[in-house]
Specification:
Chain A: Its main location: membrane. Chain A: Pfam families: BPD_transp_1 (PF00528), OppC_N (PF12911). Chain A: This is Oligopeptide transport system permease protein OppC. The complex is a heterodimer of chains A (328) and B (307). Chain A is mainly α and 328 residues long. Chain A has a domain of 184 residues: MetI-like fold (Orthogonal Bundle). Helix content of chain A is 66%, strand content 1%. In chain A, strands 1-2 form a two-stranded antiparallel ribbon. Chain A starts with 24 loop residues before the first strand and ends in a 5-residue tail after the last helix. With 307 residues, chain B is mainly α. Chain B is flat, with a radius of gyration of 24 Å. Chain B has a domain of 155 residues: MetI-like fold (Orthogonal Bundle). In chain B, 38% of the residues are buried. Chain B has 11 helices and no strands. The chains are: A mainly alpha (328), B mainly alpha (307). Chains A and B meet through helix 6, helix 11, helix 12 and helix 13 of A and helix 1, helix 6, helix 9, helix 10 and helix 11 of B.
Chain lengths: 328, 307
């Protein structure tokens, strides 16, 4: 990255350190409300978004507490229902299988909760990875400008045009096949997280770059340059905090997409490996037994999948309405 | 325009080459291959097999030969797993199938999505609009691998109207469910996109002029508003195409339609690297080509875009 023009004498002591995180708006009482306080108020007025937030909290709490209170764990087989899943494996309170059992006699409640944990984790970690990479890349590209910017963005254009699902599948298969990589605990998850996150940052990079282009000529950046703050520090302390609004919105909308992505791979049997499970793997198990009259096996995972995704989309929409000044 | 097209094609070539080389390296580095089996094979047999697949050559020669075969002869080599089928045979078998239901879903997504979006925008805030918006929000959380089982439960298990899978030479009753399962989420995205861009267009000055001079609403929409409103939709067709191809993996897996995605999943589950690579490269090439076509169409339709 090319260093911006700076006065040699000013390079010694940077005094503009604090990031400009929000514009202060004076209200009637004379006090100040920040952009974020304003946004929070607007967000909590949106009933659908708040209801979604509550539902998401319930799902997350169930996923964390559920396995502790369930009478069965997610991998042991209930031999008494085996061979008669259709009748004995039904959802019931007495047998302790609240959501019934799967085709192998394992408790579906415990499995659904375990799958929820993994799917939510993949969604959040994947989105986080994509957002961190994308924001930094976009901010650096936009701030550097000129030839560096042209090169970095052209690279993104090129990378976008590759069908990643196939590359990800190739990656997962290689990881599974390699004895050396398999000796690292949790490598399958790591490959999944990294793989999914690493191929989803392009849009974020483009958005962050666009915003950076309009930010970098503002006074507070000029002030930072004048006081001799280094370019990388300007990006991390002054540009990135100002991108937060749009980043938060995009990240919330990215989470459900990451979950769909992971479910897609697991649905094909290439993602999480038995006995661990995720929504995609559960949907696949349920889909295989569709015609055998055991519809609860797909019903419960489907319910959690659909409602949670809805919740994420509504929260994302609510955040966008709350944080995007354009639509007001 | 011509210069731009040539430039784009020139950029696409190294991208494809990199895709080929990276996948080849991954394949070589990955353990297992044509020589791995349950029994330990005699060294002579291994040498024979390696010679057959060209694995006894130095790495750069292997890559060079592979690229040469793919580019000049469109030959993706033998499958590592199946002795009876080469990768080309699999593509020849699977690709027409994928293309058939893929093209039908594409047509369905555009033919329903665009009118739905236009109607929703023109009749904003009526029940039609709410229906369209509700549908497109709902379809967002119903990706193809969720749609497919739901459709089978309704139309096969409960109603018993349609078969749960199989290809049967592309018989109409075998096509219905795959086409709907694959097309729905794209239909919804296209409807949403059309609606918002149509709303924007309908608020612009030239539409007000057209309406002020007494032009009937129908004509205003079809003659003036539709073309500019279609621009974002056209740029979305590239991702739609990629999504369709990716989605074919799920469709083939779930409905056993025998398309190219089915071969890919089988290859992935059985570590048949050469097949995976061949299919990945073919799809990568098609994707790049299609994106190029979309960009050129975009530039051709919108005279404001200059390269």
């Amino acid at each position: 990255m090319r260093a911006p023009k700076m006065h040699p004498a000013a390079a010694a002591e940077p005094f503009v350190e604090a990031a400009e995180t929000g514009v202060l708006v004076a209200d009637e009482e004379g006090g100040g409300r920040s952009l974020w306080q304003d946004a929070r108020r607007r967000f909590f007025q949106n009933k659908v978004a708040v209801a979604s937030l509550v539902w998401l909290a319930i799902v997350a709490a169930m996923a964390l507490i559920g396995p502790l209170v369930a009478p069965w764990d997610y991998e042991s087989v209930d031999w008494s229902v085996l061979g008669n899943i259709r009748e004995a494996g039904r959802p019931s309170i007495e047998s302790g299988h609240w959501f019934g059992t799967d085709e192998l006699g394992r408790d579906l409640f415990a499995r659904t909760m375990q799958g929820t944990q993994i799917s939510l984790m993949v969604g959040i970690v994947g989105a986080l990875a994509a957002v961190v990479i994308g924001t930094l890349y976009g901010a650096i590209s936009g701030y550097a400008g000129g030839r560096v910017d042209g090169f970095m963005m052209r690279l993104v254009d090129i990378l976008v045009s590759i069908p990643y699902m196939f590359v990800l599948i190739l990656l997962l298969v290689v990881v599974q096949a390699s004895a050396f990589l398999q000796s690292i605990p949790g490598i399958q998850f790591i490959a999944l997280f990294v793989g999914i996150g690493a191929i989803s940052w392009f849009d974020m990079a483009r958005i962050a770059r666009g915003q950076t282009l309009s930010l970098k000529n503002r006074e507070f950046v000029e002030a930072a340059i004048a006081t001799g703050v280094r370019p990388f520090r300007i990006v991390t302390r002054h540009i990135v905090p100002n991108l937060m609004g749009i980043v938060v919105v995009y990240a919330t909308l990215l989470v459900p997409n990451m979950i769909i992505f992971e479910s897609f791979v697991s649905f094909l049997g290439l993602g999480v490996q038995e006995p661990a499970t995720s929504w995609g793997a559960l949907l696949n198990d349920g889909a295989e037994t569709l015609t055998r009259g055991t519809l609860w096996q797909i019903g419960f995972p489907l319910f959690f999948f659909v409602t949670t995704l809805f919740a994420f989309f509504f929260i994302g929409d609510g955040l966008r309405d709350a944080l995007d000044p354009k639509d007001r | 325009m011509l210069v731009y097209s040539i430039k784009r094609i020139l950029v696409a070539i190294p991208v494809l080459l990199i895709l080929v080389i990276v996948s080849y390296l991954v394949m070589v580095l990955a353990p297992g291959g044509p020589t791995s089996s349950e029994r330990t094979l005699p060294a002579a047999v291994i040498a024979n097999i390696e010679a057959r697949y060209g694995l006894d050559q130095p790495l750069w020669k292997q890559i060079y030969d592979y690229v040469e075969n793919v580019v000049l002869r469109f030959d993706f080599g033998p499958s590592f797993l199946r002795r009876d089928l080469s990768v080309n045979d699999m593509i020849a078998q699977g690709f027409p199938v994928t293309l058939t239901y893929g093209a039908l879903s594409f047509v369905l997504a555009v033919a329903v999505g665009v009118p739905l979006g236009v109607v929703a925008a023109v009749r904003q805030n009526t029940w039609l609009d709410y229906l369209a918006v509700g549908f497109s929000v709902g379809a967002q959380v119903l990706p193809n691998f969720v749609m497919a089982p739901i459709l089978v439960v309704i139309f096969t298990v409960w109603l018993g109207w349609l078969p749960a899978g199989g290809w049967n030479g592309g018989a109409p009753e075998n096509l219905v469910l795959p086409v709907i399962a694959l097309g729905t989420s794209f239909m919804a995205s296209i409807a949403r996109l059309t609606r918002s861009s149509m709303l924007e267009t309908m608020n612009s000055g030239f539409i007000r002029t057209a309406r002020a001079k007494g032009m009937p609403m129908r004509k205003v929409v079809l003659r003036h508003a539709l073309k500019p409103a279609m621009l974002p939709v056209i740029s979305y067709l590239g991702p739609t195409f990629v999504g369709m191809i990716t989605g074919s993996v799920v469709i083939d897996y779930f409905f056993s339609t025998g398309g190219i995605g089915g071969f890919l999943v089988n290859a992935a589950l059985n570590r048949d690297y050469s097949t995976m690579m061949g299919i990945t490269i073919l799809i990568g090439a098609l994707t790049i080509l299609f994106n190029l076509l979309v960009d050129l169409t975009y530039a051709w339709i919108d005279p404001r875009i200059r390269y």
